[in-house]
Design a protein that fits this description.
The protein is an alpha+beta fold. Helices cover 20% and strands 38% of the residues. It has a single domain, classed as Jelly Rolls, CATH 2.60.120. α1 runs antiparallel to α2. It is globular and about 45 Å long. Belongs to the cysteine dioxygenase family. InterPro entries: CDO_1 (IPR010300), RmlC-like_jellyroll (IPR014710), RmlC_Cupin_sf (IPR011051). This is Cysteine dioxygenase. It comes from Nonomuraea zeae.
Length: 176
């Protein structure tokens, strides 16, 4: 059974849901699914009008996630980051694809060495850019390094509405 939840009618969301549903129905390997969804998102990345003005404002306390669509095999989430806001170091329960609508998402990637983490890469993701990944190897921290409110659209290969989050594990290990 495939139960779907859409939280609101939003410009461009229906086309994304239809396209992603078709990709997910092919039951490819997680990494291939993430890359195929990334290709779709590059062609159909919506504008900031996907969110209301109030949603785009974010929160002064921490970044905010808006669940836009959830069903058994994928979810679409908009994340709003005020300047300097960031995640903890974490990994994910499933594949993920993301596209940047505004701001700069600075991503730091890590490798788990058992008793510590090692930084293995950095990327500045700018408006219009899209990327995707799948576990393992998805340990990262994300920060808005721009002076403006950042908005990014994330597609996860799981029902984060049911799970409550896309995060599988938070890493408290020292970084060396």
């Amino acid at each position: 059974m495939n139960t779907a939840t859409v939280t609101a009618v939003r410009p461009g969301l229906d086309a994304l849901v239809t396209g992603i549903s078709g990709i997910v129905a092919q039951r490819q390997e997680p990494r291939e699914t993430a890359y195929a969804v990334a290709d779709l998102l590059r062609d159909r990345l919506p504008g900031l009008d996907l969110l209301t003005e109030q949603e785009r404002a974010g929160s002064p306390v921490q970044y905010v996630s808006h669940l836009l669509h959830a069903q058994d095999d994928f979810s679409i989430v908009a994340v709003v980051w005020r300047p300097g806001q960031h995640t903890v170091i974490h990994d994910h329960v499933s594949w993920c694809t993301f596209g940047i609508l505004s701001g700069i998402e600075h991503e730091t990637l890590y490798r788990d060495m058992g008793d510590h983490l090692v930084e293995i890469g950095r990327a500045d993701n700018r408006p219009g850019e899209v990327s995707g990944f799948a576990p393992p190897g998805d340990i990262h921290m994300v920060r808005n390094t721009s002076a403006e409110v950042g908005v990014s659209l994330h597609v996860y290969g799981a029902n984060v509405g049911r799970l409550g989050s896309s995060v599988r594990r938070v890493y408290d290990l020292p970084v060396r």
